[in-house]
């Protein structure tokens, strides 16, 4: 980027492929995206159009070591990835929003918007068919390209860059304003089509505007005739030709392709984007906390900063929380520093050595193109093979070290670092393009529109319409605890236990404080949190940071442009989880007594394995005894997000939970807000009025209490089920004991539960229908709705249904 002249370097380059060769005999270098990115950096390219990428689908990839981001558009099917186009831009231009709004037309055409200070430019990457292709294919390409250009507002600038497989010739007198006075070669059929397009859309070809040697005009050498031709072009609107400072072929860049890179320096004043007032989350180098001396220094820094502020300002819980947060964050920044940049794979880890190797290849290549003799060609071939072997040796060495490292982590059961190694092996992450569809199916372009769409989507998901008659709720269950939970402010022992129970390596909330920072502060942080939680308990006021959430969308399946195909993961404040963990530790033993034995969700020493085993045993014993079994697998639509909060607190009051604990729970669920984070930026916040708090340690416990009411109503109003007769205390090798009737036990099973997933079991279809009706009515009374589309029924040993099931 030329800052002095306020210019950007645009380019086009047919790279032949961005895929790495799987053949051992191949002499092309591995990690082509990284190699090409470093070549672009070497020649100061800001935005480049790449052709023949052979990448499948649409996506983006960042090469952090070189500082470039790839945006690509390819064929949907891997078997049809013959072409493919991509636009590679400096990462800083993408992050600042100067390059944005990618539009993928097909595997031959794509575009991005380049925002200037006074104008907007549409940069289009093209890869035209060759002359040997079918005429219909060629005409279709130019019709699609013409359609793309015609949709661009006339006030916007246009830059076409690509491999057009066309020769426009040098007859500038016949094509005034389209071809400059310095063209080269003869015109062919594709050249005529391209010139006609330029005339219709008022475009001119920048390659033909500058007087220079022929070797700086041509971009491709014919493999048989060995003649050089000009087939890669950069084209602009005719009114903007004065902004082109230089356009020429660059003979130095090398990525094992038969095309030269064509670079155009264009006068361009970048738009100054107003910085987002919301700061990005701070990531600290928490690995330093493994050193005891660093932990001690970190704790002392927190203590000094905490006590340096005015002690009289701690009367308010919000101010007290600000003191705690500031002390921890400033100490982390001073002692730990920023988290080091992620090195994705072997190429990034060996970047210094690889760049030295590539310099040798670059020097040999320059010597050959300046003086293409047999000696220079032979030397270039030798250096090329040597570089390939040296880089392959670096790769094998890196792999050997990484395998040893992974084996070490497996031996000590360190799953976190093992997963990190696997991610490094996979290389740079290929992400989806930031393309989002509106509810009407239209592609949204600006960041503001995309952020508004995400807000609209999750506001609807996290706020379900629930109508519950609070006064009619009758809790048919009772708790039978050995002792009543404490209702006084949290003690030091409880806070210390809660901090120790926090999981490491989890993303922080909006305050950027992780569990490792709380644990690294040791006694100082414990004492600070005890003082803070006592203030919260006394004032019944929750700091705002603790009630806010950041929602991160994660793709589930299907079209990545549709918001419905994403699951939102909520990030909450980790210090706020300390309070939730204290409440959870107090209430869990108390509420555990009201849960039925059939509930295996989020309970100690219970899992889905137990429910699957019980279900299989039911089916196997039914077949073995030649009896009948009917099962309904019921799914509740958005169960956790549909919990009515007023009804939940009413149930807790009827269960005689401690009043202060209920008050704190109410405050944790009042005035809760969320904001969606996409590409590191948070959109506008919205209020969340229903459901338990996703990501909160209390959410599973509170939901189990809520859904247990439905199970209790089912058991109270429906007395049937499947009887299980078993013998548990007899010697299995004693025939007399097996025949004894005194050692036989009998129990009844009506449902199998794992959180919101329920399987109702009965002997007959009529009984199953009655049980499902009761379950559905009980769920509706609490604001929950049965998802009929996902609810399934299974009949075992019933040849013909005795009644219709609906």
What does this 3D model show about the protein?
By secondary structure, the chain is of the alpha+beta class. Among the domains are: 7-267, Endonuclease/exonuclease/phosphatase (Deoxyribonuclease I, Chain A, 4-Layer Sandwich), CATH 3.60.10.10; 346-428; 597-640 and 707-806, Alpha-Beta Plaits, CATH 3.30.70. It has 22 helices and 31 strands. Strands 16-17-1-2-5-4-3-18 form an 8-stranded mixed sheet. Strand 19 (436-437) and strand 20 (443-444) form a beta hairpin. It is elongated, with a radius of gyration of 34 Å. Residues 535-806 form the Reverse transcriptase domain. This is Craniofacial development protein 2.
Give me the count of strands: 31
Which CATH top level class of one domain fits?
Answer: Alpha Beta
Q: Give me the secondary-structure category.
A: alpha+beta
Question: What is the typical, i.e. mean, pLDDT?
Answer: 90
Major sheet details: 8 strands, mixed
**CATH domain fold name of one domain:** Deoxyribonuclease I, Chain A
The best one-word shape is elongated
Radius of gyration, in Å, reads 34 Å
Residue fraction in strands:
15-25%
Strand order of the largest sheet: 16-17-1-2-5-4-3-18
Oligomer: single chain
InterPro entries: DNA/RNA_pol_sf, Endo/exonu/phosph_ase_sf, Endo/exonuclease/phosphatase, RT_dom
Protein name: Craniofacial development protein 2
GO molecular function: catalytic activity
